[in-house]
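Hi everyone, sorry if this is the wrong subforum. Our group has a chain we'd like a structural model of before ordering constructs, and none of us has done structure prediction before. Sequence below.
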Amino acid sequence: MLIWDKIMLELLREKINIWDYLAKSEKPIVIYGMGNGADKIIDTLEKYGAKVSDIFASDEFVRGHSFRGFKVMKYSEICEKYDDFNIVLAFASHLDNVLDNIRKINSEHTVFAPDVPVAGGGLFTLEYIRENKEKFDLVYNSLADEESKRVFLDILNFKVSGKVDYLFNSVAKVAGKNAIPFVKRTRFIAIY
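Answer:
Right subforum, don't worry. Here is the predicted structure as tokens:
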């Protein structure tokens, strides 16, 4: 048995792609953010048969405007409108106050952050991992320590599921900055 078979069967926790999960969920889908990322996410959700119910933005960005035919609301307004809902994050940030707000919102409702390409096409899905299992096997087996392997699996689980908990689990506070913790013999590999 290859180590990748073990990863697929035993270590990769997420077995359902974010897009399939959201398409089958009975909870309303609410997009957090606007712009190109939101456009790509909404288009992808539509391809999977998922319907967006509303859009909200951080309070300081809500000015009574609309995006793709939706009135942009505040988070508090979304909470008043729906008892429970799925939040799909449509922007990236490294700012501590924004990340703290995402953590807070995620403690109240599930926040998903889909991995959509900045340019070009293609999605990172469970099928993509299966199609490229030899490459993922090579990377996993090249990692020098258990912490690197744990972070690698967290990233794969995040990319498949979109669950932000995996990202927060693999980020540490180092000198006031978010960074992957360093250990002896740390290697960084970019996967394209």
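For your construct planning: The CA atoms of residues 105 and 111 lie 7 Å apart. The chain has a mean pLDDT of 86.
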